[in-house]
């Protein structure tokens, strides 16, 4: 096979056979296809798209390009959840204990990641002593014993995706629905999921700003999952403002604990319950969504989900006393208010800017070697729809530095106002099955 033929066929809009896609991914992973040809291929896909079977073949080949987690010794349907990313999104911390408390195995591989806050692992490391460097045997033992464990991502998971994603980043080809869909799904497949619930975000703080684009991406991912015999569904949820009220690692853990205690903010509670309920349905533990919602609410109300969180943190060496008393988690040394200079109703909040402000306080990493400050972040006191008068507190910065002028200015600028009342967008825009 010759790479140039694969590129020209795609350029001319022909459907590529599975063998051609597999050959490309194998060769590219080994270094047999150079970056300039892979870039030309990505650009051809950007313009010509991919059929459902091409996207499934690309996903499968990328999933098989490196280590794949063998979860065959874990009993039950392994349901994974993936969010396309958003500011203040701490649902994984809430869903894991909920579904594990319902007897569904949660064998989660997570990354650290760059961005406004750390990834799920970084957030959990806000519990002193929490360990994610565990062997595969230990990981499987913990999942079978407690129904939940979380490990750091193997360095060799989907190497083809890693290479292709970095290349797309510098060749203007990130924003291609089939390439994004296969990139995300290849990681889920390699991590051993039997079934996948996708939370595709839409709005000013999301990758897909319009509901239409989010629907298209969700549809492509659901189609890939089904083509590869994984039960897959997607929820399209709103990211026009951060989820919940807190952005930052320990702050998000505290809010997740509050939510497991039944005392979380409504948006975070509702989205967590919805996603958890879809996971319960895919795991065949409920006949329909309504029944699943009842089961989920039950383990929140009777404290089983919170108990599961404690067991999970303890089993991986963390100090679980902070689950009972979240004030024991790291606290920042300064609380600094950001006040409004305007009157009106909050009509918009640039979620990505709130994320950027959290980063300037040290909550996230700009490069992979940066250190995270677990204690710092932002507490949003006003959200879309709230009435504000000049001088009111919009947000509180939790900082370990006294000069927070940059973060304050970014937060203040992120707020948009209207003279008339504002109704926030619905939390859930659509469900794709
Ligand atoms: N996230 C991914 O994992 N891959 C993409 O291509 C885009 C976002």
From TrEMBL:
InterPro entries: Glycosyl_Trfase_fam3, Glycosyl_Trfase_fam3_N_dom, Glycosyl_Trfase_fam3_N_dom_sf, Nuc_phospho_transferase, PYNP-like_C_sf, PYNP_C, Pyrmidine_PPas_bac/euk, Pyrmidine_PPase_CS. One of its GO terms (cellular component) is cytosol. The keyword Methyltransferase does not apply. It catalyses: uridine + phosphate = alpha-D-ribose 1-phosphate + uracil; 2'-deoxyuridine + phosphate = 2-deoxy-alpha-D-ribose 1-phosphate + uracil; thymidine + phosphate = 2-deoxy-alpha-D-ribose 1-phosphate + thymine. Its EC number is 2.4.2.2. One of its GO terms (biological process) is pyrimidine nucleoside metabolic process. It comes from the Bacteria. GO terms for molecular function: 1,4-alpha-oligoglucan phosphorylase activity; thymidine phosphorylase activity. Residues 345-418 form the Pyrimidine nucleoside phosphorylase C-terminal domain. Pfam families: Glycos_trans_3N, Glycos_transf_3, PYNP_C. The keyword Signal does not apply. Signal peptide: none annotated. Its cofactor is K(+). Homodimer. Belongs to the thymidine/pyrimidine-nucleoside phosphorylase family. Catalyzes phosphorolysis of the pyrimidine nucleosides uridine, thymidine and 2'-deoxyuridine with the formation of the corresponding pyrimidine base and ribose-1-phosphate. This is Pyrimidine-nucleoside phosphorylase.
């Amino acid at each position: 096979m010759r790479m140039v033929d694969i590129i020209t066929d795609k350029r001319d809009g022909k459907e590529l056979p599975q063998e051609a896609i597999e050959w490309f991914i194998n060769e590219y992973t080994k270094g047999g296809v150079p970056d300039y040809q892979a870039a030309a291929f990505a650009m051809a896909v950007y313009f010509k798209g991919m059929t459902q079977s091409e996207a499934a073949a690309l996903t499968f080949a990328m999933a098989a390009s490196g280590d794949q987690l063998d979860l065959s010794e874990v009993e039950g349907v392994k349901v994974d959840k993936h969010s396309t990313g958003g500011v203040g999104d701490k649902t994984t911390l809430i869903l894991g204990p909920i579904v594990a408390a319902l007897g569904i195995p949660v064998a989660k591989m997570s990354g650290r990641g760059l961005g406004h806050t750390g990834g799920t692992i970084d957030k959990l490391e806000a519990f002193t002593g929490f360990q994610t460097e565990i062997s595969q045997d230990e990981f499987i033992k913990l999942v079978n014993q407690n129904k939940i464990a979380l490990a750091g991502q193997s360095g060799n998971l989907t190497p083809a995706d890693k290479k292709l994603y970095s290349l797309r980043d510098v060749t203007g080809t990130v924003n291609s629905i089939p390439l994004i869909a296969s990139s995300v799904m290849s990681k889920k497949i390699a991590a051993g999921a039997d079934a996948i619930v996708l939370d595709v975000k839409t709005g000013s703080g999301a990758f897909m700003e319009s509901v239409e684009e989010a629907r298209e991406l969700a549809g492509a991912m659901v189609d890939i999952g089904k083509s590869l015999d994984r039960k897959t569904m997607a929820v399209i949820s709103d990211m026009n403002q951060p989820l919940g009220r807190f952005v930052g690692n320990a702050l998000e853990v505290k809010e997740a604990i509050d939510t497991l205690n039944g005392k979380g903010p409504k948006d975070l509670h509702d989205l967590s319950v919805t996603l958890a309920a879809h996971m319960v349905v895919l795991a065949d533990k409920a006949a329909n969504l309504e029944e699943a919602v009842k089961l989920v609410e039950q383990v929140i109300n009777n404290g089983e989900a919170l108990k599961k969180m404690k067991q999970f943190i303890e089993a991986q060496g963390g100090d679980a006393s902070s689950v009972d008393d979240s004030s024991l988690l790291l606290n920042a040394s300064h609380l600094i208010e950001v006040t409004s200079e305007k009157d009106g109703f909050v009509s918009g909040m640039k979620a990505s800017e709130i994320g950027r402000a959290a980063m300037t306080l040290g909550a996230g990493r700009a490069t992979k070697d940066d250190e995270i400050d677990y204690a710092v972040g932002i507490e949003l006191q006003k959200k879309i729809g709230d009435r504000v008068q000049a001088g009111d507190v919009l947000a509180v910065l939790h900082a370990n530095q006294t000069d927070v002028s940059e973060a304050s200015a970014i937060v203040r600028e992120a707020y948009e106002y209207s003279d008339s009342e504002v109704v926030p967008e619905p939390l859930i825009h659509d469900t794709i099955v």
